[in-house]
UniProtKB/TrEMBL annotation:
Name used for this protein in its record: AraC-like DNA-binding protein
Keywords: DNA-binding, Transcription, Transcription regulation
UniProt xrefs under InterPro entries: AraC-bd, AraC_XylS_family_regulators, Homeodomain-like_sf, HTH_AraC, RmlC-like_jellyroll, RmlC_Cupin_sf
Record carries keyword Transferase: no
């Protein structure tokens, strides 16, 4: 990235309502900032250099970019450009159809390929000529996440059969008191073999993967339903509300009740 950098607000405020979808153009001056929500940047016209946590690349017709919340990033475009930008929080990264969270997948790769379906979504968003947040923000975000989850499932099918079986078993059994031994049996492999394959193919242990899936499902249910917290705890495999509270506080630094109040305040 060029040396001359325009410093913007060090910690931008969360938009009043997420998800938020906008058409945006960027100046040639390189800017650096961060924000507490995640961001997906998709190309419509032109290209933009962007660097996220030390990983640099170009958003253009071939690839988009994902900026995790809290990460300092630099960006700038030397030519006239037009982008579709989605501001979105953690809870909205979970598919309503199958409960799969795609947040980790995006966070691990930063840049991702523009598929024909993504180009169609960009064209759909660009057809709205309004300024500011587009009226289809929530519906568009749902389509984006569902398409991402579908791609993740297809990618999972291309993984080793053992890991694919394990992930599918976990998704279908989040409400059950799962153990790594039970997951290994469902995958037809030893516990040690399961651990090795998860680390090699997913970069995470089976138990950590299970914990992340339960956390993501709980956050989605807290925001998107009015179910009592103790029922959500049971649905996501925790023995009671206290167990869910401890898990969310450890994983996200927030209690279920506080997270639900925060979501209600944005609506």
């Amino acid at each position: 990235m060029p040396e001359a950098i325009l410093e913007t607000q060090a910690w931008s405020e969360r938009p009043e309502l997420l998800p938020k979808l906008e058409r945006r153009s960027y100046a040639s001056a390189v800017a650096r900032h961060k924000h507490d929500f995640h961001q997906v940047v998709l190309p419509r016209e032109g290209a933009m250099e962007i660097e996220v946590a030390g990983r640099g690349g170009v958003v253009n017709a071939a690839q988009g970019a994902f900026v995790p919340g809290g990460e300092v990033h630099e960006f700038g475009s030397s030519d006239p450009s037009d982008f579709i930008v989605l501001d979105i929080d953690t809870s909205h990264f979970t598919s309503l159809r199958n409960g799969i969270s795609v947040l980790d997948d995006y966070a691990h790769k930063t840049f991702f390929s523009m598929t024909p379906r993504l180009h169609l979504l960009v064209s759909y968003a660009a057809s709205f000529k309004t300024t500011g947040a587009l009226p289809i923000s929530r519906a568009w975000a749902t389509l984006f996440i569902e398409d991402s989850a579908r791609q993740l499932v297809e990618t999972g099918r291309r993984r080793s059969t053992r890991v694919g079986r394990a992930c599918l078993f976990i998704e279908k059994s989040l409400a059950e008191p799962l153990t790594v031994a039970a997951i290994a049996r469902a995958a037809g492999i030893s516990e040690r073999g399961l651990h090795d394959r998860f680390q090699r193919e997913l970069g995470i242990s089976p138990f950590a993967y299970l914990t992340e899936r339960r956390t993501a499902r709980a956050l989605a249910l807290l925001e998107q339903t009015g179910q009592p917290i103790h029922e959500i705890a049971v649905l996501t495999g925790y023995s009671d509300q206290s167990a869910l509270t401890r898990a969310l506080r450890k994983a996200r630094g927030v209690t279920p009740a506080a997270f639900r109040r925060r979501c209600a305040g944005r609506s």
